[in-house]
Please model this.
Amino acid sequence: MMEDNSPKVISDKIPFYRDVRFLKVFFQILFIIGIILLAGFLYSNMLNGLSRQGIELNLTFLNSEAGFELSEGIDFEPSETFLKAFWVGIVNTLKVSILGIFSATAIGFFFGIARLSSNWLIRQIASVYVECFRNIPLVLQIVFWYAIMLVLPVVRESISFFDSIFINVRGVYLPALEGTAGLILWLWYLLSGIIIAIIVVLGLAAFRYFFQSRELHATSRPSFISNIIFGAKWVAAPTFLIIAIVGWFLTPEVPFELSRPEFRGFNFVGGMNFSPEFTALLIGLAVYTSAFIAEVVRSGIQAVVKGQREAARSVGLKESQVLRLVVVPQAIPVIVPPLTSQYLNLAKNSSLAIFIGFPDLFQVGEIMMSQTGQSIPIFAMIMVSYLIMSLTTSAFMNWYNHRITRIGRSR
Amino acid sequence: MTENENTTNDPIIICEDVHKWFDDFHVLKGITTTFKKGEKAVICGPSGSGKSTFIRTINRLEEHQRGTIIVDGIELSNDLRNINLIRQEVGMVFQQFNLFPHLTNIKNITLGPIQVRKMSKNAAEEAALALLERMDIADQAYKYPAEISGGQQQRVAIARALAMEPKIMLFDEPTSALDPEMISEVLDVMRELAHSGMTMLVVTHEMGFAREVADRIMFFDEGVVIEEAPPADFFDNPQHERTKLFISQTLQH
Ligand SMILES: Nc1ncnc2c1ncn2[C@@H]1O[C@H](COP(=O)(O)OP(=O)(O)OP(=O)(O)O)[C@@H](O)[C@H]1O
Ligand SMILES: [Mg+2]
Model:
């Protein structure tokens, strides 16, 4: 059977303490046990310490009456619970973070590309912007913007743009789309549109799958999935659009109307209002982060090798096409990971709201701590909330990066 | 001897006293020459002599600072319109291929025709497939550049340039980055292109190719053309010491 000079086959029977597969799992389990023990030790220590001071850890206080007011956010009465107050803080943080991320991205891309412009003046302006705003501490910038908001004209003398945007000492007033009574009806039309579209597509796909392509060769016969995609694109989307549009006109009252801020009596009504605190925080976060994003964008674009631009020019593309079709698509995968950490920084930096009294997650938490003395659970709640926000952002950005990263960059 | 039957007498590129500086480094020191429609010129010379820089001035990847370049009746000036027109008439193949890694091979080829020539997607893809067929790599159309060999990538790059239906093709050391066994597949394609009557300016160290295909060999040294002649004269009867040395060195191996 086996020749003498054939290589020696290593036996399958390895003692477990030398088996790599076993050792890998073993050490991981050991590590997890260690962590659990350590955490348990710390936790029981903390409970002991707290009970010696007569404090008990539980979350029942969340259901008691808050008794304080919040200056802005979703409607909130002092008679509502602490839990509701906390929720108001979360929504405020989300609002400023999301708006901040969008504005910082737009401004950052603009200045990042401008820093590489062939125009000397544009390049200089962009680099002054970046160097100024990323080198001054963010707290200072936020307080600075807040100071500016507070010296704006009084309501009666608002600065106005096109008679629809007003800026004054009470903040910024913008037009907004508001749902009307017709909105609900229209949403029903949309829902039925979706259902009809799904039925149509499934029916069509089944029909094509079973009948139409019978005579085709088995291999070239489109799969059920590809039939669905085809149907979704060419049948379902148009069906849905038609129902949505017809529904819009059938609804007696137009579903949305543009509400503009109007001066009535002593103040503006209608539209939407950003308070001075919110505005200062938003501008501070967006401007500061955009300076970093500009650098990220610039280095991403510079990471695209020179030969790529040259090849794009040599086939006759104009400079704007070179940028849009060749450079930016290759820069995006380089930009996304550091961009993600800028987004996370922005969300976390929004906790600086406490310096200008904007009721974000952290500030509401602070008030709750001083009212209840329950600092440990509240701190835990705050940290977990930030953690959830950050992990969600990371997960989304990772998914996006994965989707756009094409197979290997050549060479 | 190998005077190509396609070469005409109509000039297509006219260079008059072309100078180029990189800061204060004088790279091209007065190049005056005329290329005729259908002519195949091979450019050789030592490293750093300005060969690449010269052919790159012809489609304005490098700007020349003095003298005139006229391509197919259009003067290469600072007029953006002229630059764009000339780039549409001049195709270029690079040493490092420079394919767009985020696009499939066929999309690499159709990008120019669709975006610049405003061809329909279908027409452009049909033309691209025909070109790939001609390059003998039709089966690689829907792969990404990173998934094919160097020789295949360079042929996709040639197809990308040809898709714009240029009148002139520039080659900057198209085989220098290739493994030896892939060089001939690229040279074959270039030979076929030469026979089709394309005007070609080729920077290369492939002297066998030069001898066979070129109408004229130009020898660059320190930014000037010190010798130019048909291949037979160039190889067998070089005039300059510098040229003699170069030929003996390149033919040694
Ligand atoms: N962008 C640039 N900036 C400054 N100097 C440059 C630049 N490009 C080329 N040079 C210099 O110009 C000279 C000519 O370069 P070029 O690339 O034209 O040489 P070449 O003849 O093609 O050489 P090779 O055979 O090595 O490709 C070289 O000395 C090179 O260092
Ligand atoms: Mg070169």
Summary: Residues 81 and 199 of chain A are 45 Å apart (CA to CA). The longest strand of chain A covers residues 165-168. Chain A is about 65% helix and 5% strand. The mean pLDDT of chain A is 85.
